[in-house]
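Re: [help] complex structure
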Amino acid sequence: FSGSLAAALKIECIVEQTYGQWWQSLHRTMLRGVLGKTFRLIGYTIQYGCIAHCAFEYVGGVLMCSGPSMEPTIQNSDIVFAENLSRHFYGIQRGDIVIAKSPSDPKSNICKRVIGLEGDKILTNSPSDFFKSHSYVPTGHVWLEGDNLQNSTDSRYYGPIPYGLIRGRIF
Amino acid sequence: MLRGVLGKTFRLIGYTIQYGCIAHCAFEYVGGVLMCSGPSMEPTIQNSDIVFAENLSRHFYGIQRGDIVIAKSPSDPKSNICKRVIGLEGDKILTNSPSDFFKSHSYVPTGHVWLEGDNLQNSTDSRYYGPIPYGLIRGRIFFKIWPLSDFGFLRDSPNGHRFSDD
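Output below.
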């Protein structure tokens, strides 16, 4: 009886050993496989994230404008397509609608029409003033105004903004 | 043969675009090496020094007083300027020259920063064109690479009296 018990124990020991080795090797390859897969996934994500980012920055993208300052041309919550090539080739012209970083809040964007480029003379008084006053747009700046003049904070409020803040042109 | 050449060309273009985009994003979001020219930041940065700039602070809005930043020039969108941040939004800035009798000051508007070069006599900066919007800042310079005699982190401003915190 003790002999068969010893034999059973021995067999059990061998089975456990083999099983343990098999599990270890599986574990090692599985871990390496999982690690490899994770790194590949991260690599692909970074790759395509970069390409998408560059596409949005250099070519254009779809975005949603909110706010009443460009009515009736752009209503609240309209979806528009913006292109960013004009900015890089300095092709923004008078009358274009541009999207720019807000000068008073770097985290948000504003969406206005270009009324004047550098060197242009801008009338800065409201129609009710008696005397007309005007100013010149300094070099490297643009003068923006919303289409909805009564309800728009634009360059009449914060002055001309540097061209460097413009991000794209809505068309 | 034409199809093979065409296929190879497309693959080459594809790889170029891929790695170009990754390099561009690395430069924009992490940092890069660039060369500063001009005398407006002497003695901290001499003409034709090579420095290392990081762009993370800009995105996390971590630019502080005393940092040297690189920004797009407000008078010329094609060029960059390299100055020290003297005041953040809301700070009071002394805007007169030391020879004036009466002190005059102004406040930096929200979303703007006040920049000045270290070489006050020879620097066109915010004393000339006013505060610039934060959105023009592109990165923060924190390390000088060349010349090797001046290798290391950048010194503090020699014009400490310009920082007023009240």
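Strands of chain B lie at 31-36, 49-54, 68-72, 80-87, 92-94, 105-107, 112-116, 132-133, 137-146, 152-153.
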